[in-house]
């Protein structure tokens, strides 16, 4: 099954997990993470497809930064699909910068972003859960902050009838098969295997068979 149509534009948005050293000058250079893997895997199966994949992830971003970039990095690109993976920095800044984002603020900002995307684009939406690997005790402590935000993403996916990539549960299941460090050395940023895990989960959610 292939959910894409000719001339679709697929936009990946998020933080460093999506950015992964993407080019700021050449849209064909999607970086070294899951967006590049998705495009490569897709075209290996459908080389004739006329699909454009774009990456606008920016390291360190939170939901409020996506709101600030709404016009330039969402609407102006005229995407037909928008995939969003955001939230771990809304958690992380509480612990490294004493700059917390409450679950309520996270939900309010995320809902505002999705509402404006629905109002100003015709894009179908794909929400990816933020996730966390328990590689150190302090990372496990972050759960008290991140879990409510994961619940918000699930809630908004239902509210806006979007696709949902359940990454947190997928990474948790993966950690039962091999140590968390195999999937993410610091608990946040995926290894190559971790990015491949995201790629497979994303394609499965899109019902794209390779």
Verbal overview:
The protein has 210 residues and is α/β, with parallel strands linked by helices. The chain has one domain (9-205): Rossmann fold (3-Layer(aba) Sandwich), CATH 3.40.50. Helices cover 49% and strands 11% of the residues. It contains eleven helices and five strands. It has a five-stranded parallel beta sheet with strand order 2-1-3-4-5, with helices on both faces. Helix 6 packs parallel to helix 8 (143-159). The chain is globular.
Condensed summary:
This protein is an alpha/beta fold and 210 residues long. Helix content is 49%, strand content 11%. It has a five-stranded parallel beta sheet with strand order 2-1-3-4-5, with helices on both faces.
- Beta-strand percent range: 5-15%
Number-wise, the strands total: 5
Shape: globular
The CATH class designation is: Alpha Beta
The unreliable regions are none
Largest sheet: 5 strands, parallel
């Amino acid at each position: 099954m292939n959910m894409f149509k000719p001339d679709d534009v697929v936009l990946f948005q998020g933080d460093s997990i999506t950015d992964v050293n993407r080019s700021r000058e050449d849209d064909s250079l999607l970086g070294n993470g899951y967006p590049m893997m998705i495009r490569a895997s897709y075209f290996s199966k459908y080389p004739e497809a006329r699909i454009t994949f774009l990456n606008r992830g920016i390291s360190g971003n939170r939901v409020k930064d996506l709101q600030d970039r709404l016009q330039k990095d969402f609407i102006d690109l005229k995407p037909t699909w928008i995939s969003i993976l955001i939230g771990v920095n809304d958690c992380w800044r509480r612990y490294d910068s004493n700059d917390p984002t409450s679950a309520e603020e996270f939900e309010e900002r995320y809902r505002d972003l999705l509402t404006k995307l629905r109002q100003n684009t015709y894009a179908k939406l794909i929400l990816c859960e933020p996730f966390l690997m328990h590689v150190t005790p302090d990372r496990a402590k972050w759960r008290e902050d991140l879990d409510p935000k994961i619940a918000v993403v699930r809630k908004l996916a239902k509210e806006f009838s979007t696709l949902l990539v359940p990454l947190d549960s997928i990474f948790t299941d993966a950690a039962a098969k091999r140590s968390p460090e195999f999937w993410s050395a610091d608990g946040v940023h995926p290894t190559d295997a971790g990015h491949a895990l995201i790629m497979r989960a994303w394609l499965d959610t899109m019902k794209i068979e390779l």
